[in-house]
Specification:
Length: about 120
Amino acid sequence: MQQPGVFQAKLLLQSQIVFGFVVSVIALFSSHALAIAVGSGICFIANALLAVLVFRDYRAQEIPRLMRRFYQGEIVKIAVILSLFALAQLTFDNLNIPVMLGAYFATQIIPTLIAAQFGSRNPM
């Protein structure tokens, strides 16, 4: 049986990847397509990493262990986000930073709101 936290994490990641892909395709013909794709991609990569770190060998009964893994995962996630933003800035010459950050935050917030609407439903 799959735990509800794992189901919600998968739903959130699926929502983020679909949202990032759709926004990137819509922006394909604009001058900011690369910045949008990079921002959305960084958000998805960081959240997927956190989900893997927290929910591997998931045991809801071991709350202190789960909380420790969550905090450690958040530290790793922040380090990965900062590293990927720096790498993107160094790699791409004319990357629009505000657009990239906007795409990151939109990918973080909007799918989370969508997943929250459907996350309370448990799969059969």
